[in-house]
Amino acid sequence: MNTSKTRSICEELDNLYGKEGTPEREQFRREAYAYCMGQVIRDARKGEKITQAELASRIGTDKAYISKIEKGAIEPGIGTFYRIMDALGLRVEIVKPVY
After folding, report:
1. Angle, CA of 61, 70 and 42, to the nearest 5°
2. Structure pTM?
């Protein structure tokens, strides 16, 4: 007989960060989004084999700012995000999903 208590990811998030719609859960969502965005940028930069300093130079900022973005400590504004994508040779498409 299995007596372990398994919970869904939603239950675990509710337990750790509060129910959806609470300030705590929204803060977690923002931090998780910033972290994921930073990882995407880091992976793309490494794929292009350029340093944080080189990427910073290409977009007119400094290495510390790129480091903070990649760590998820800050979320770049949309203009900076597009400059980063351009500097990495990437393209952002906005498409409407077809259901």
Report:
1. 100
2. 0.76
